[in-house]
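Protocol step 4 of 5: obtain the predicted structure for the target chain.
Materials: sequence only (see below). No template structures provided, no constraints applied. The aim of this step is simply to have a reference model before the mutagenesis design in step 5. Sequence pasted as it appears in the construct record:
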Amino acid sequence: MEPRQLVENWVSAFNRADADALADFYAENAVNHQVVRDPVVGRDAIRDFFVSEFGRATMVCQPENIFQDGDWAILEWTDPKGLRGCGFFHVVNDQIVYQRGYFNELSFLRQEGLPLPTE
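Step 4 output (structure tokens):
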């Protein structure tokens, strides 16, 4: 599967809040690094991360662009509330081995009514 197609399928699972399906896209020792947080390492930890995140907020990914360059896919997205971000996915043998994401966490917390960091 091409990286672009994998990311399209990833978006579909994300929008269903399906942590198990999302985890299946990742290699056993994959890294998911949302740069506002520490990296999450390993498929099981990534699954747990998604379970936690879907438990605290309703999230929707609306792709604006999906680009592919070799074994990398780049997702530029918005959500219905106006949050914007992007993700970079390194795909090897039909699995994500590394993901890096950028978004404004303070905007996310505010729009979801979640507690703001105190530090």
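Step 4 remarks: Residues 43-56 form the longest helix (14 residues). The mean pLDDT is 94.
Proceed to step 5.
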